[in-house]
Amino acid sequence: MPVMGGKDSLQPDGPVVRSIGVESDSDVYVKYRDGLLRYATSLVGADQAEDVVSTVVLRTMSRRSLAELEKPHAYLMKGVLNESRSVWRRASTKPLSETDIRHLPGEVVETLDALWRLPVRQRAAAYLFYWEDRTVTEIAELMDVRPGTVKRYLHNARQRLKRSLQ
């Protein structure tokens, strides 16, 4: 007997049954897209953020459905971090261009420059902690590391920024 509402699926005996509350790939993508773009922007800059997110989503969907992922947000955030690291390995320049920073005050430019010089993992942890207001435990889950590792990333980032900005 068909159940009304939700997504169509074929059952082993042949009839079409609708399952209630099942998210589609597009639902998952739309749900997390903006957060993934902000995260990618903090890691690789605005020019490359959409490419990073698209690459991660397409690569994931070539292997499995986004709707099948147990923790899609954490999985995609980890993918964005890994792809951002790949972008940084391939690129020899920082993602901020002269036109991006032309109208910013000097101290802001200096701070942004210091942030861009942080290793990607430290920058990712700092972004999630200070801009996304995530807990150390949440960041550890998103980055697939232990909470102590996140604390070390944050400590090292603060120390580097302190030295760079003095």
Radius of gyration computed on alpha carbons: 20 Å
The amount of beta strand, in percent, is under 5%
H/E series, N to C? EEHHHHHHHH
Number of DSSP-assigned strands: 2
Structural class: mainly alpha
Total count of domains: 2
Largest sheet: 2 strands, antiparallel
Overall pLDDT metric: 79
* Terminal residue distance: 71 Å
Strands of the widest sheet, in order across it, are 1-2
User: Helical element count?
Assistant: 8
Please give the share of residues in helix: 55-70%
Give a short synopsis of this structure.
By secondary structure, this protein is mainly α. It has eight helices and two strands.
Q: Can you offer a commentary on this structure?
A:
With 166 residues, the protein is mainly alpha-helical. It is 67% helix and 5% strand. Helix 2 crosses helix 3, helix 5 crosses helix 8 and helix 7 crosses helix 8. The protein has 2 domains: 69 residues; 66 residues, Arc Repressor Mutant, subunit A, CATH 1.10.10.
Question: What labels describe this entry?
Answer:
166 residues, mainly alpha, Arc Repressor Mutant, subunit A, 2 domains, two-stranded antiparallel sheet, 8 helices, 2 strands, globular
